[in-house]
Amino acid sequence: MFIEITNPSNPLRTENFLRPYKRGEKEFTPEIARQILTMTNHPRNIRDMLRLVLNQPIEKRSEYADIILATFDHRAQPAENAMIAQTFSSEKTFLDELKRHISAAENFTYSQNSDFYQSAAFSPVHILEDYHNFHTIPDNADIIYTGKSFHRYYENLKKVRSIRFPNAHAITLQNTKNFPPDFDVSSAKEVDLNRSDLSGVKKLFFQDGAIVSLFNLTGFPQEVDLSACNRINLSYNNLSNFSSLKFKNDSTISLHHCKNLPADLDVSMCNEVNMDQCKTTSSLNALKFKKDSTVSLQYCSLPQNTDISMCRKADLSGADLTRLKALKFADNAHIILNYCRDIDFPLDFSNCEHVELKNFDMDHIPSIKFKNKQQQKESGLKIPKDWHGKITYAEKTNFFSSLFRKHNTNG
Description:
Blueprint: H1 11-22, H2 30-39, H3 43-54, H4 65-70, H5 79-86, H6 92-104, E1 125-128, E2 141-145, E3 149-153, E4 160-164, E5 170-174, E6 182-184, E7 190-192, E8 203-205, E9 211-213, E10 223-225, E11 231-233, E12 252-254, E13 272-274, E14 287-288, E15 294-296, E16 306-307, E17 313-315, E18 334-336, E19 347-348, E20 354-356, E21 367-370, H7 373-379, E22 390-393, H8 399-410
Parallel strand pairs: 1-2, 2-4, 3-5, 4-6, 5-7, 7-9, 8-10, 9-11, 11-12, 12-13, 13-15, 14-16, 15-17, 17-18, 18-20, 19-21, 21-22
């Protein structure tokens, strides 16, 4: 099965040879694939050859099985090429033999005088099927984990060169440190990296619709893309390294107890936002929310340009509202202002469905308007005796109608 390089060609010449096949100008055949293996082991050329094989019709795939295996027979390949090869077939016998070749591949050198034949720069590719065997990986390995789920805690990845999860649906790596620069979780639907140090990771991105938890990280990657995630938990993080944060439409975001939020933070596309106890929120340029969104801003110092007028539910319990000049509410909104203090502008709850005003300081409020007395009663508001403001109601009771109803009742 081993195919020796008998017609050495540098990467550029090999690329020129491959180009008409990549463009579809010539028909790619098993003979052409074998010819490539006699020319080079350069990773980019081999990657292009593997992709050409995978582009062949399903009914012709079997003609290339030996070529795929020969690509890894005494030929060390980078993890990317190993991952491409594993998508060639789901047949167990083939995959078992392929994994054996990948794991056993030596740093084979065809010519000491031709750098482009050497594979010595590659680390061993280690195929891992069961995360319980994680401790068996060799030092400085490129790991390809082929299972559907991966759950590990308190790991040290110092000896790992790269790790990828091409088939995983759920990945958990909590309280883990020394992540490699090449850490790829882009295939997973659920990712939990809570309390880990990701400062060694070059770039972290996620698949469309992913559910991601990055709670209380001790270090962030150089680059993080959260724009495809449906649900994100960034609670208890220092976000000073972020110049901006982009979120997906209709996403759910938790920034609970975060500090140093980017000044241009925009959550106006999110369905649900939790920013309870966030620090430095007063320095935000503005804070606006989507129509019918659910928002929690408990115990935050809100910026002057805070707009909750489109929220279906907004909980501002204990929030510092001193910078605000007004608050407007959506029709049928659920508004919670428990423990709020030092508000010095009028409040109109007459269009709200539900209002909570428990332990509410109304000393400086000139007036409050409710839908009716029942809404006021249910709000839990307690009016101090020395308050000099005014309470009004949108639904006014007609005196004569009231007398008429009373007369009919008495009969």
